[in-house]
Sequence to fold (116 residues):
Amino acid sequence: MSEAVYARIRANPKFVELVTRRGRLAWALAWVVWVLFYALVLTVAFAPTVIGMRVMEGSTLSVGIAAGLFQFVFFWILTAFYVNKANTDYDALTAEVIEDALAAGAAERGSGRAAR
Fold:
């Protein structure tokens, strides 16, 4: 694509909406991951007895292992959520933005030929 197409894409309000929505979701998910991860790290550092407690009486599974496994699974779920959102909403909006930019370029070329 040419620089003119990229300029039309950047000027498109749908592109601004796409960047804003995608960025907002990415930062929200990043904060969730950051808070959960560092909550576990801080618990290990400042409350190691909590991490060593058993999940149930007679269980060999500790709270720390359960929390770590939960994070592992939960972060994969968050990733799947983002990928699904990107493949549905964001890809459709991206296609619209590109289509609009290419159509505008074709219209400009067409009007340029008519003016000659």
Summary: The chain is about 85% helix and 0% strand. The chain has a mean pLDDT of 89. The chain has one domain: 3-104.
